[in-house]
Design brief:
By secondary structure, the protein is mainly alpha-helical. Helix content is 63%, strand content 0%.
Length: 195
């Protein structure tokens, strides 16, 4: 489960700290944007972890379905993996429907965390798990997915708070596009920008 530690140093601890998004109208515009961007990055990372968990849930459910069918056949879940995952990708979208332009920053860490949920069981060997182990694995993944989804909704509320305040400032004329463009032009360039 994803816990938020008061005073913690992780990004999620900062973003979901009680004072982080309170009184956004008192924050300078650059701070507002910085906090919004930090929260948006956390949302992206949580969305990535959620997608990983959904894929693992689909794999376990597919193996349970294969075992319960009248003719389980010889084709195991690993052989069907592409179809299982593509069915999920082509299905109706579930979630916020937000377009995300950011890349996850902790992909490897999240992959390891998702695998650790089933202990020593490897999903590439899902057919070797007993029915009870499959059920436990599915429960574990669903519990973690529920926790990730809850934190993601909380982070989305923070992003929405900052976006609303930024939009309010533009609507009331206390912020301008010219100011934004000037700040972007005066930002230091990196080697990547110069290439």
């Amino acid at each position: 489960m994803i816990e938020v530690r008061p005073g913690g140093r992780r990004r999620i601890d900062r973003v979901l700290a009680p004072g982080y998004a309170s009184e956004p109208e008192a924050l300078p515009l650059p701070t507002l944007r910085e906090r919004r961007d930090e929260a948006a990055q956390e949302e992206t990372d949580l969305s990535y972890l959620r997608r990983l968990l959904h894929a693992r849930i689909d794999i376990v459910k597919a193996e349970q379905l294969r075992r319960s069918s009248d003719d389980p056949g010889d084709e195991d879940v690993v052989t069907q993996l592409t179809a299982i995952l593509s069915d999920n990708a082509l299905g109706p979208a579930t979630g916020s429907g937000r377009h995300q332009t950011l890349e996850p920053t902790r992909a490897g860490e999240y992959r390891r965390a998702a695998e650790a949920l089933v202990g020593d069981a490897n999903l590439s060997d899902v057919v070797s798990l007993s029915d009870d182990q499959l059920a436990e694995t599915l429960d574990s993944y669903r519990g973690q997915e529920g926790s990730v989804s809850q934190r993601r909704r909380e982070v989305q509320a923070v992003v929405d708070t900052f976006n609303a305040e930024i939009a309010r400032r533009y609507a009331h004329g206390t912020a301008s596009v010219d100011e934004l463009l000037d700040s972007q032009r005066s930002a230091p360039t990196t080697e990547d920008d110069e290439a």
